[in-house]
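Input record (one chain):
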Amino acid sequence: MARYANRSLALAYTGLVLTPLFWAGNAVVARGVVDSIPPVSLAFWRWVIALLLLLPLALPKVRKEWSVVRDHWPRVLVLALFSVASFNTLLYLAATTTTAINIALINSTIPIMVALLAFLLLGERTRPAQAIGIAVALTGVLMVIAQGTLGRLLSLSLSPGDLVMVAAVISWGIFSVLLRRLSIPLSAMTFLTLQIALGTALLTPVYLIDLLLISGGFTLSGSTLPPLIYVAVFPGILAYAFWNHGVWNVGPARAAIFMYLVPVFAAVLAWVFLDERLGWYHLAGGALILVGLYLTTRNAPAPQTNR
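The corresponding structure, as predicted from the sequence alone:
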């Protein structure tokens, strides 16, 4: 039993490291297609593709657990509203009216938002070491975003997109906390598939309104299909599966700290794929984030195994 718990915990932390890597790639891809794929279309079709990829594997499990699905789908619907339907849609919308640096800065407050909501809704208190870890990691994030210059932070200005990104952060915080609070006895595959299916259903009327009255959609081509497949598989299916497993095993507040890795991974990916310069502040900020992660995750409790 102890061996299983340790292995599950190791998998949880591995997944929580890969999740921000995939989401950093999501941000890079989103910036690259902002002129060719409308944000709502990008959000909608990523989940349609993800669902089509999952269904052949998931349908047997869904049928087997149908009685449980029937009893618990309203809870999953609530979770899908704040995750699949809202978070990335809001993030993509924010990217149209604000800068990437502002999005990264606001996105980095997710751990604080989750910790606050976990305390208010679940009564989870932050240990002194965790509080120090949050502060150290946040310092690292700010160093990366500010590029080592205080004036860069002070010169940031708010825009409508910033407010939309704040809404995205709140949405993800609510989802992470409710994921732990709403005990849903479904297998990981069934839960993820149901989450994506219900979230896509919620997003459909928004997509149709955008398609018919606002953006007009996009043209599927050799340049638009690959990014859609990427955001469906990596930041879509895999990242959500890893996040769900991580939150369930280590708790929402501790899992959220890994969001601090997003701007670090984004900086590295931008350096590799966009030829942007990797500065000393990326390395120093990354080191501080790793220290913060160590402080917040050491002596982690044994994982839950009843799901």
